Structures
1.
Amino acid sequence: MNEQYKEMAGRLIVALDYPDANQAMNLLQELEGIPCYMKVGMQLYYAAGPDFVRELKTRGYKVFLDLKMHDIPNTVKGGAESITRLGVDMFNVHAAGGKDMMKAALAGVDKALQSNSSLQKPLVIAVTQLTSTAQDVLNQEIGIPGSVKDAVIRYAELTKSAGLDGVVASAQESADIVNACGKDFVTVTPGIRPAGSDQGDQKRVLTPGEAIRNGSSYIVVGRPITGAEKPRAAAEQIIKEMLEA
Ligand SMILES: O=C(O)c1cc(=O)[nH]c(=O)n1[C@@H]1O[C@H](COP(=O)(O)O)[C@@H](O)[C@H]1O
């Protein structure tokens, strides 16, 4: 396995959206040896909890815990402290919670790190506009005027000013986020659909290659891998496309 492959595979975050640990373990087995990041979201976390996250870390995976915290600052601080104690590599909050809430997440991380020096500092990122949100929904249902891109950039700038490491957005916005916030600001981009695959509930989608060319730091892929007849082949094809981008 060459370094370039390793580096690119590490930028693929596989969403383990399963109802129980057994099914998630089956996929891990299937993808054994591919050095990708693993994402535990609400479905799996609410079913399998912190034990499953610890198991992933014991097996040496990089873990993104995607619980999208959005609450009062004090509660988010406590949540961030508990999450940091799990030893994850990345977790997220909603930028819509505002600057004080995002700063509280960082304070929670610091509190955990101070209590245990063997813990690592996770990347803390904020969700901007969900990739399932289309322009008309943003304007007419949610009532936020302007383009999705403008809303995403505003959230990204707010996130940066709060001191977080980056944002979750669509890869359609990656280049503008890098322009506005700099290349060290992390862009984590779900809504990835290889050419010809089912879009499902995602609205702002791009292919893996387009996402990498737009400057995404990481791409998040769930169903195009988990729902594939041959998940390993699907993951390898995505990494190949990323490498060729
Ligand atoms: O924070 C996320 O990971 C996230 C944010 C977002 O705006 N859109 C989004 O799809 N996600 C997550 O990314 C994954 C995408 O999965 P697929 O649509 O199956 O590829 C899911 O686990 C979502 O929860």
2.
Amino acid sequence: MITTPCGHEWIVFLTQQVEEQSLDTALITAVSGLPEINVFALYINKHFDPQISPTLLNADSQIAPLSSVELMHLLEKVSKNKIRVSCAFAGVTTYVPMYYLGTVIGLLIVESKDELPEDVGMLARHILNVYANQLALIHKSRLDPLTELLNRQTFDKKVIEILSEEDFSGKGEISTENQSWYLAIIDIDHFKRVNDNFGHVIGDEVILLVSRLLKDNFRFKDYVFRYGGEEFAVLFQSYDKVAARQKLNCLRANIAEYPFPQVGNLTVSAGFLELSYVDMVASLVHKADLALYESKNNGRNLVTAYSDLGLVDDIANDDDIELF
Ligand SMILES: Nc1nc2c(ncn2[C@@H]2O[C@H](COP(=O)(O)OP(=O)(O)OP(=O)(O)O)[C@@H](O)[C@H]2O)c(=O)[nH]1
């Protein structure tokens, strides 16, 4: 791609990317296409959180990796909206900040023999900022607007991503730290009554508060989705079924105790199962739903595992069937 002085073509290229991975690749391509930029490292904090250290985007960088402490120190230094240059015997290192809404969320480090021309540094800065805006847009498109939980469209993709993770493949079904992945579907009990008695605005507020309780009860690395109106899905890791059930019961109890403004007390029901590589996403959801119905049928405010139902699972129990 030819680079015009304003970098117009790179901006068009970056803003055409609608997937995070292709956007990352586009950024690496754009930066490596800039004149006089050959050796570089791109560090980005994809959580847009100034407390979290950025991580390296171009893993094959020839520049020695920096520690979190070094990176946080550098971010602070470049946060004055400046391109910083440090000269040493071996050459010049240039630090270009990446901004999002006034906060530095990343850094481009370039090592070169001579100082980079000013217009190249400025162009790099524009490209980084366009990337940050596009990344934020992609992140937003995955969220439910009311609750800011992950939306249903993102759910299937995430399950498939988890199932195809390296340490999940084969029959181990083991994830990081020897924990397994679980899927839970959680539904607010008698939610229609909330709408009927207090109106939709209060109903929406209840959905929002339940979403917050859900987020607070799970960890950073778990995934919480708004699956339907008053239905939520959670993908979380646990050592075993007992621990998974305990986690969900803890959430259930926290919600039951929570004083919802105007409405008072509410409960939720849940159904869950361990993710299995033999199942398709629709089948996993169907099984979690069956367990959820069991909770509802047994009086609500309950957690049921799919395995509690004692159903014969033809596919999962047949080791000879190869689905992939
Ligand atoms: N306020 C509000 N209500 C919603 C939203 N999405 C779905 N609902 C309502 O949620 C209610 C769901 O009701 P049902 O599926 O009958 O279930 P329920 O009353 O929760 O009863 P059980 O699930 O059987 O315990 C319906 O009245 C929907 O209109 C939303 O985004 N906001």
3.
Amino acid sequence: MRNRNLIESITKAVEGLEFGLKYERNIKIQAFIALLVVLFSLILNFDLTDKLLIFMWCGVVISAEFFNSAIERAMDVLSEEYSPKIKIVKDLSASAVFILALIALVSGLLIFFKYLSRLI
Ligand SMILES: Nc1ncnc2c1ncn2[C@@H]1O[C@H](COP(=O)(O)OP(=O)(O)OP(=O)(O)O)[C@@H](O)[C@H]1O
């Protein structure tokens, strides 16, 4: 069942990407928000550094959400019954995404306001 070469590893990673975008609600929402944010950064003609910051934060948050989803599913494989230990693992994992999403939101707002204030 192991990947035999790099092509196979990439193929499996793309399958994970497709699965996440198709079945994980939070990934779908975050991917949609990222798409909007990237579109606005292009429309408002952000400079290269700001565009890179926006792209990087979108990537960091979405990637963290993929990890979070993987951890949630791994926990569900262990048990679907209520377990205080599973609750802590899932809550900690969700907190990691939450912290990154908050920092991304604040950074994104600061960058957007800089360009919006130039328009006004
Ligand atoms: N087996 C369990 N035992 C105890 N609590 C659980 C269990 N499964 C889920 N939970 C609780 O429900 C929350 C949501 O878990 P779930 O696996 O449904 O993820 P989700 O709906 O994708 O949520 P998230 O928004 O955190 O990604 C967890 O953070 C945890 O508090």
